[in-house]
């Protein structure tokens, strides 16, 4: 059986597409499914932001197969782990959880790196390319830990 992991941010065009691509690159495809979604639906159907695509490409990760979509309540049934990028996404997703089992699946992604510190992945949308590289590095470290723990 495959383990399913969902990455969630606000628009699903900047941070969670990077998180999806990075984690997928660290896990064997036959055992894991990695997807991403946004709590907002404004960018549904779009490619990731060109700055996320470029930053991932520089690190040898292709995210151009991805298309944005909105988070849905049935994602709680589909996925085993739901990683959110910031406290706002965390609270928004948690507020949609139908039961305690669903709530337990929702985590703040950088708590994997800095346990219980509630550090957020900053939204790079309104900044320059440098912000995307910064986000990439944070997510790369967090995803290394997640990938290691999932394969124990
Ligand atoms: P993301 O960044 O949540 O990392 O995908 C954003 C992208 C677009 C918007 C907000 C955040 N927006 O408001 O359009």
From TrEMBL:
Question: What's the EC number here?
Answer: 3.1.3.48
Q: Which residues form the active site?
A: 9 (nucleophile), 15, 123 (proton donor)
Query: What keywords does the record list, in alphabetical order?
Result: Hydrolase, Protein phosphatase
Highest taxon of source: Bacteria
Q: Which SUPFAM superfamilies match?
A: Phosphotyrosine protein phosphatases I
User: What family does the Swiss-Prot or TrEMBL record give for this protein?
Assistant: Belongs to the low molecular weight phosphotyrosine protein phosphatase family.
Q: What is this protein called?
A: protein-tyrosine-phosphatase
Species per Swiss-Prot/TrEMBL record = Flavobacterium sediminis
